[in-house]
Design a protein that fits this description.
Length: 703
C-alpha cells in the first residue's frame, strides 16, 4: 500500500447494541398491545421499544414523534394497523415499515438477538416472572408477555421464567426481576444528557386500561438506562391495598440520595385523582407542593427518609425526552489509510453467550471527522453502512471479537459522492479549474494576511472588461478630455504586457505594502524586478532581477538603456506570476479568499471554487463555492460587491442550494454585506430549511 495514504494510528470507539423497533397498533387495541409486548419480550432491548397508537386519520401526534425521535429506533413494525395507514405513518416518521410477520426473518433489517443470548444464567430461586396468555393487561405491560410455548421453551434454558401471583408482578418490578427487565441486560447508553437523579414514577392504571398501560410502557422505554436515575413502577387499581408489606418494600426503591424532590410522581391518564390519593395512603406517601428538584449533587447528600412525598401534577416527559446514544462501548486503536482499506479490530463490550443472531455495530472517531453525515458517503466506508449521528453503523453477526474492513474516504471523494447524488452531472467551472490548480500550487490561506489580497488585486493586469468599465465611466462623466483618453489608451495599449508596480502604487500603507509584496514573492505568486524606460522608442519594460544586465538595453529597439532609480537607489517593481495574474483577472481571487476563511474556521474542510451543475429536469446551475464545511455540506455565491446580491440573485442562489440539499448556504462578499441583505437572505434560507452563513470584509481580513 502507498504509505502516502497512511493517516496514522487513531483511537476509535465502537458500540454494540440491538436493532430496535417501534410497534404500530390501532388506538385502543388490546390485542395489538399484547402482540407488540409479546414480540418485544423476545428481543434484546425490547423494553426500550416504544408502542405507537396510530389514530384512524393517520395524523402522528407530536408526543409520538418526540417518543420515536428520542428512542432512536431503526424502523417501525406494523402489528394491526391498516397497511396503507402504517406506510403513511412510517413515512411521516421517516422510517421503514416492516410487517410483524417479517421482523425475525434471518437477514431482515430488524432481526436481532433473543435476550437469551446476552443474559447470564439465573438461579431457580430467582426466576423472573412473565405474563402468559389471558393475564390482565397491567401484568403484560409490567413484566412482558410470552405464549405458553415460548415460556416452555425458556424453562429449559438459562433464561427460565415463571408466571406469578398478582402481587408478584408489582413487587418484582422493584428489584428488576421481571422477564421484560431482563431484555435490557448488557444494554446501555454510552452518551446521554439525562439528569442524574429524578423522582420515581409510580404509574397507576385500571387492570386492563390500554391507554394507561401504553403511556407507562412508552415512558419506561425512554427512561435513562440506569434504573437508579428514575425508578418506575406500574400498579393496578383495586388490588394494591391487599398486598401486605408493599409500602415497606417500596422504601427500598425510594431511599436514595436527597438530590431531587418530590420522592414520587404519582401518574395516570384515566384514574381519578381521588383514587390516586387513596393509593398514596396505602403506599404511606405524603402529599406535597414542594418545588421540583432534579440532578446530581457533590458531595452526595444523605438518603431521603420516610415519610416519602408525592405529587400528582407532574409530567415525566420533561426529563425523559433527552438526547442519548444507545449501546455498550469500547475503545481501540486502528491504523487508518485515506481512501483505502483499513481494518477495525476490537473485543465486543457485550458478551454473547450463544452465536447465530445479529447486532448493530456503531464506530466513531477522528478518521470520520469532516465527512458529511450522508448515506451516500457511508456507503463509501462500507457498502451496507449507514450514519447514525456521528457514527458509522454496520450490521453483523453477534460475536465476541469483531474484525471489519472499511474505507475512510478522502474529503474530495465524499464531496464527489454528495455532488453525484444531488445532480445528474457536474464539472468544474472555468474558475473552478483555475482555482483547483492554484489551490494545489500554493497556500491560499496567505490571502487572509494583511494586505496580501489587496496587493494581488493592485498588481492584476487590467483586461478588456476593466477597459470597458473605464470608458463607460468617462462617458458618464461627460468628459471629452483628449489627454485623459490618451492616458487611458497608453495604459491599455500593451495588454500583452503584465502589469508591474512599485509598492508605492499598491494603495497600502508603506510597511504593509512592502510586506505583502514580499509575501507574494515567497509564495511564488510574484517576482521582483526593475524597469527600463527607453528614451529612443519610449517602451517601458519590466526585467526580473535574475535577467538584469550590467549594461541594460531596450528589448524593443536594442538601444542602450538604464534602470529606473529614485533618490534612495534602484526602483524595485513587483509583477504577478502569469497564472496568478490570469486567475485574478478571471475573478477567482474572491472565491479563494472565502475558501481560505472557511478553512481557517473549520480546518477539516474541503471546497471546490466553482462547479457547473446539471439536473434531471434539464435545468442547469453554477455554484461559486461547494464543499464540506466541518462535516456539513455548504454551497453558495461570492461577490466582489455585496450590492450585487439583489432579491432576484438571492432567490436564485438559495433555490440552487436547496436543490443541492446542502446544510449551509453561503453568502460572501469582499466588501460589507448590509443588514437588510442579511435579513432578506436569512428569511429565504429559513423558508428553504437552510442555515445561512455570511462572510464579508470583517471576516475576510486579518488586522
Amino acid at each position: 500500500m502507498d504509505r502516502r495514504d497512511y493517516l496514522g494510528q487513531s483511537m476509535m470507539q465502537a458500540a454494540v447494541l440491538p436493532a430496535r423497533a417501534a410497534y404500530l397498533i390501532r388506538v385502543g387495541s388490546d390485542t395489538g398491545f399484547r402482540r407488540a409486548v409479546q414480540e418485544a419480550s423476545t428481543r434484546w432491548g425490547g423494553m426500550t421499544e416504544p408502542i405507537l397508537a396510530i389514530p384512524e386519520n393517520g395524523e402522528i401526534p407530536d408526543e409520538l414523534r418526540q417518543t420515536v425521535a428520542t428512542a432512536k429506533v431503526e424502523a417501525v413494525v406494523n402489528v394491526d394497523v391498516d397497511d396503507a395507514l402504517a406506510q403513511r405513518a412510517a413515512a411521516a416518521l421517516s422510517l421503514t415499515c416492516i410487517p410483524i410477520a417479517q421482523i425475525d426473518h434471518a437477514g431482515a433489517a430488524m432481526f436481532t438477538c433473543h435476550p437469551l443470548h446476552v443474559n447470564p444464567p439465573v438461579q431457580p430461586s430467582t426466576l423472573p416472572v412473565v405474563a402468559v396468555e389471558g393475564a390482565p393487561l397491567w401484568q403484560v405491560a409490567a413484566a412482558g408477555l410470552l405464549s405458553e410455548d415460548q415460556a416452555d421453551e425458556l424453562r429449559h434454558t438459562a433464561l427460565a421464567v415463571r408466571s406469578g401471583l398478582p402481587d408478584e408482578y408489582g413487587r418484582t418490578q422493584l428489584y428488576g426481576a421481571t422477564h421484560l427487565q431482563s431484555t435490557i441486560a448488557q444494554f446501555g447508553e454510552h452518551r446521554s444528557n439525562a439528569f442524574g437523579s429524578l423522582p420515581a414514577a409510580v404509574w397507576v392504571t385500571a387492570p386492563d386500561d390500554v391507554e394507561d398501560c401504553l403511556a407507562f410502557w412508552n415512558a419506561r422505554a425512554l427512561r435513562p438506562a440506569s434504573r437508579a436515575g428514575m425508578p418506575m413502577l406500574l400498579l393496578p387499581t383495586g388490588q394494591v391495598q391487599h398486598w401486605l408489606g408493599l409500602a415497606q418494600q417500596l422504601t427500598g426503591m425510594l431511599s436514595r440520595p436527597a438530590e431531587f424532590a418530590p420522592d414520587v410522581m404519582l401518574l395516570s391518564r384515566n384514574v381519578p385523582q381521588e383514587q390516586l390519593h387513596e393509593i398514596a395512603k396505602v403506599l404511606e406517601l405524603q402529599h406535597t407542593e414542594e418545588e421540583v428538584r432534579a440532578g446530581t449533587e457533590f458531595p452526595t447528600p444523605a438518603l431521603r427518609q420516610a415519610p416519602f412525598t408525592y405529587r400528582t401534577d407532574l409530567d415525566p416527559r420533561q426529563w425523559l425526552l433527552r438526547e442519548r446514544e444507545y449501546g455498550l462501548s469500547t475503545s481501540f486503536d486502528a491504523h487508518v489509510f485515506a481512501g483505502d482499506a483499513s481494518t477495525l479490530r476490537f473485543t465486543s463490550p457485550v458478551h454473547f453467550h450463544t452465536q447465530g443472531s445479529w447486532a448493530l455495530i456503531r464506530a466513531w472517531g477522528s478518521p470520520f471527522d469532516g465527512l458529511p453525515r450522508r448515506n451516500c458517503v457511508a456507503t463509501l466506508v462500507e457498502k451496507a453502512a449507514e450514519w447514525r449521528g456521528d457514527s458509522i453503523q454496520l450490521r453483523s453477526h453477534a460475536q465476541n471479537e469483531y474484525i471489519f474492513s472499511i474505507t475512510v474516504p478522502t474529503l474530495a471523494q465524499a464531496a464527489e459522492a454528495v455532488l453525484a447524488e444531488a445532480s445528474t452531472r457536474h464539472t468544474l467551472s472555468d474558475k473552478g479549474k483555475l482555482g483547483v490548480a492554484l489551490q494545489a500550487q500554493a497556500e491560499i490561506a496567505a490571502l487572509l494576511e494583511p494586505g496580501v489580497y489587496e496587493a494581488v488585486i493592485a498588481l492584476t493586469t487590467p483586461r478588456s472588461k476593466e477597459l470597458l468599465k473605464e470608458l463607460r465611466k468617462i462617458k458618464a462623466e461627460g468628459s471629452d478630455d483628449f489627454a485623459q483618453l490618451v492616458e487611458l489608451a497608453s495604459m491599455w495599449g500593451g495588454r500583452a504586457e503584465r502589469r508591474y508596480r512599485p509598492t508605492t502604487k499598491l494603495e497600502l500603507p508603506p510597511k504593509r505594502a512592502s510586506e505583502a509584496a514580499e509575501r507574494l514573492c515567497a509564495l511564488g505568486w510574484a517576482e521582483r524586478g526593475v524597469e527600463t524606460n527607453c528614451v529612443q522608442c519610449g517602451v517601458r519594460t519590466f526585467h526580473p532581477f535574475e535577467q538584469t544586465q550590467r549594461r541594460p538595453v531596450c528589448p524593443g529597439c536594442s538601444a542602450p538603456s538604464r534602470y529606473e532609480t529614485t533618490a534612495d537607489g534602484l526602483s524595485v517593481f513587483y509583477r504577478l506570476d502569469s497564472f496568478v495574474d490570469r486567475a485574478s483577472d478571471q475573478g477567482l481571487l474572491p472565491h479563494l479568499l472565502v475558501i481560505a476563511a472557511l478553512t481557517e474556521r473549520e480546518p477539516n474542510s474541503y471546497f471546490l471554487p466553482g462547479v457547473n451543475l446539471w439536473f434531471a429536469d434539464q435545468t442547469r446551475g453554477e455554484a461559486d463555492v461547494f464543499g464540506l464545511y466541518g462535516g456539513r455540506v455548504l454551497s453558495g455565491e461570492v461577490k466582489t460587491s455585496a450590492s450585487q446580491f439583489t432579491t432576484e440573485q438571492l432567490t436564485h442562489d438559495i433555490a440552487l442550494s436547496a436543490r443541492l440539499g446542502v446544510d449551509i448556504h453561503l453568502l460572501a462578499a469582499v466588501d460589507t454585506v448590509l443588514r437588510a441583505t442579511r435579513e432578506q437572505a436569512a428569511e429565504l434560507c429559513s423558508d428553504a430549511g437552510l442555515e445561512l452563513l455570511v462572510l464579508d470584509k470583517s471576516e475576510l481580513r486579518r488586522s
